[in-house]
Amino acid sequence: MSLGEATKRAAIKPHEQLAAYLAPELEAVNALIRERMSSEHAPRIPEVTAHLIEAGGKRLRPMLTLAAAKACGYMGPYHIHLAATVEFIHTATLLHDDVVDESAQRRGRPTANLLWDNKSSVLVGDYLFARAFQLMTDADNMRVLQILSNASATIAEGEVLQLTAAQDLKTDESVYLQVVRGKTAALFSAATEVGGVLAEADDTVVKALFDYGDALGISFQIVDDLLDYWGSAQTGKNIGDDFRERKLTLPVIKAIAKADETERAFWVKTIEKGKQDEGDLDHAIALLNRHNALEETREVALDWAEKAKAALSVLPAGEVVHMLSDIADYVVARLR
Amino acid sequence: MSLGEATKRAAIKPHEQLAAYLAPELEAVNALIRERMSSEHAPRIPEVTAHLIEAGGKRLRPMLTLAAAKACGYMGPYHIHLAATVEFIHTATLLHDDVVDESAQRRGRPTANLLWDNKSSVLVGDYLFARAFQLMTDADNMRVLQILSNASATIAEGEVLQLTAAQDLKTDESVYLQVVRGKTAALFSAATEVGGVLAEADDTVVKALFDYGDALGISFQIVDDLLDYWGSAQTGKNIGDDFRERKLTLPVIKAIAKADETERAFWVKTIEKGKQDEGDLDHAIALLNRHNALEETREVALDWAEKAKAALSVLPAGEVVHMLSDIADYVVARLR
């Protein structure tokens, strides 16, 4: 690569770099997504999905599948189908999350609208989920189907676990990890694993790809949960959403573990009972800082990113593997 | 069969007769369902599903799969898995229907409760759906997977179509048929078809099983829609639910097609605009009777039941096929 190219590369972000490298495949994925999300009989379906699928998500998960397949030397056409599958599953869970998380947003919103959205979200999510399974069968690979159906069950299980664990102050770091593994990491690890399986890679390589996706997904979610208390205008995240929705995430779990009597009473009031007053979010952030909970959470996220990179060592070195490693750095780079 | 047995048989209903015939298989299906709906990490899941799955549904759909496989001489173990799959898909759609149809019930219900139910219904439904796909892969038959994933997409498409078509007076009989084929018949026909495919039956037999399930499902749904205006305490159905939820079903479509100016205004007010006053349900039923819409709908249901029975003629005659034929009679027998 020329010096000019290297400089140009340094200026663009790792996920953009990977997207540029995978451009032809990503275009094929997008075309397949558009084709398969259409519905002859129910034009409402693309209406609902279009804004989610078109509106320039980063396509991180499908890129992981494409990159994993390429890293293992796959030359066939079906990594495109599996990448689209992964994006459909992701979009379906987003749609169903809309229903799930509506509670917090409902105040002040017109009810009719809300319900219409709920109906459409549930059913269109189901449609995408079913389409995902149709797409998988195109690859004609039973192990791929098992991996992705297992991942789907794990995702739902993680979300249900979160329902019961979220407002329960007894939720500890191990339960939190289980939730995160389910609701986020399961799709990351399935995305990378199926790339390797499709390419008929060795078991050790497939295992490494799974471990990479698992650690990357965990890191990704912890960063997300951290930014909810630490974010800024730059990260584009609203601070305090999780607090308002009374979600017990890692920073709060760490602060609760070190809380004295008075602090504990504050967490019981705001998270367990949901009685939140003006200034409570600021006080929560002050408590997180007092116990170094944000910094400690950041270290956990960095650890998982390192684990993700370490897992890649099993793979034959090469441009794609290097880019996957950069992706792990990028995920935590949101923390500066 | 002895005369005593024949008399005993005549006294029990066709679906009970089929259940008795399939008793060992149904027990295995129930055991598999209990095993697969459990969740190590999220005990809420069996809590939510138990009342749906345990509470003695008729298990009509799984029985269709078992019977179709047996009618084709299948001797392996996987019709059990596919029957459980079909029941899981059915239960998942019921859970998601709960969310969808909540609007009508919400008045007077505590909101927190409602939301909790919505959350659990969506996520546990997703879990069952994913579990269904895991179960399918056990049968290790790609065609079966295609049929069931296609059916799942068709079900969701039918439900979405119903969302847009339900309150639209332009909805005609062909759109109604499409909705019914999607939301109900697709799972019936997939249930019977996969039984034949698993048994490696001839294409003509597989096609006949599909046609039987398709016609049976259509008949089943039309009867259901008819009973919503024609039911009684005996049928255990509340009269008028569809009217209150402003669902355009076949009886109303038929009455609207023959409506004069004044009647049309009534349907616009009650169904399209949803302004329903005391006595409107009675008036609606009077209009249905004036135009013979209930009787005509009944004839359509009977026709589809006959089509279902006719499709079976391709299959080798035998006890199971005879019982499947009786099931078609039974579905319309709810109309006396």
TrEMBL record, chains A, B:
Main function: Supplies octaprenyl diphosphate, the precursor for the side chain of the isoprenoid quinones ubiquinone and menaquinone.
Top EC class of this enzyme: transferase
Stretches assigned to coiled coil: none
PANTHER family linked to this entry: ALL TRANS-POLYPRENYL-DIPHOSPHATE SYNTHASE PDSS1, GERANYLGERANYL PYROPHOSPHATE SYNTHASE
Keywords: Magnesium, Metal-binding, Transferase
Cofactor(s) the record lists: Mg(2+)
Molecular functions per Gene Ontology: all-trans-octaprenyl-diphosphate synthase activity; metal ion binding
Catalytic activity: 5 isopentenyl diphosphate + (2E,6E)-farnesyl diphosphate = all-trans-octaprenyl diphosphate + 5 diphosphate
GO aspect biological process, one term: isoprenoid biosynthetic process
Pfam families reported in the protein's UniProt record: polyprenyl_synt
Protein name listed in UniProt: Octaprenyl diphosphate synthase
Highest taxon in the source lineage: Bacteria
Organism the protein comes from: Celeribacter baekdonensis B30
Enzyme Commission code: 2.5.1.90
CDD domains attached to this UniProt entry: Trans_IPPS_HT
Similarity section: Belongs to the FPP/GGPP synthase family.
